[in-house]
Specification:
28% helix; 172 residues; 5-stranded antiparallel β-sheet; alpha+beta; 3 helices; two-stranded parallel ribbon; 35% strand
Length: 172
């Protein structure tokens, strides 16, 4: 399986902020942004694995750095930053641009993990990724540590789920 360059997986989506996307503080709803992040990251994962279906395995972090206002455009850049055997870490960078002043700022960052599936919905091996730019190299170099943290958190979540009840509150 031939490795792919990070830039080959880069997706750039631009969008405007509509009034229906705003919360009561007149900034973009976090959930609206998360939906946009997942959609963009999915395309990066599919572009890397070249399969019909990739599923979101986890959203590690979404860091909201700067509010996004109605006067801004939203640019989401995503690309594969690190790979495991069956998983792909996708880095997303959100850039808000004031459409009047042209000021650009990092509004959010996120890491999502995807798994590529075959026709039988089974995980398949994915190609390695080759970083080239300084940004890509930094994310790649720090990817193994994030992968270890994800593995630990997966186990912690399994432990948590094993202790949760699915009984209806009135049946207890």
């Amino acid at each position: 399986m031939q490795a792919k360059k990070s830039k080959e997986t880069r997706i750039i989506q631009n969008d405007q902020v509509l009034i229906n996307d705003l919360n009561n503080y007149h900034t973009l709803f976090g959930g609206v942004l998360m939906k946009k992040l997942d959609a963009c990251a999915t395309l990066s994962a599919r572009r890397h694995a070249r399969v019909k279906e990739c599923v979101t395995a986890s959203t590690d972090t979404v860091n909201f750095i700067s509010p996004i206002r109605q006067s801004d455009s939203v640019c989401i850049e995503s690309f594969v930053s690190y790979t495991g055997k069956n998983s792909m870490e996708i880095f997303c960078k959100v850039i808000a641009e004031d459409m009047i002043s042209a000021e650009r700022r990092i509004a959010a960052t996120a890491f999502l993990t995807f798994v590529a599936l075959d026709e039988d919905k089974k995980p398949i091996e994915v190609p390695n990724v080759i970083p080239e730019s300084e940004e890509e190299q930094f994310l790649y170099d720090t990817g193994e540590e994030r992968a270890k943290i994800r593995k630990l958190k997966r186990q912690q979540n399994k432990d948590l789920v094993s202790k949760l009840s699915i009984k209806k509150p009135w049946d207890e």
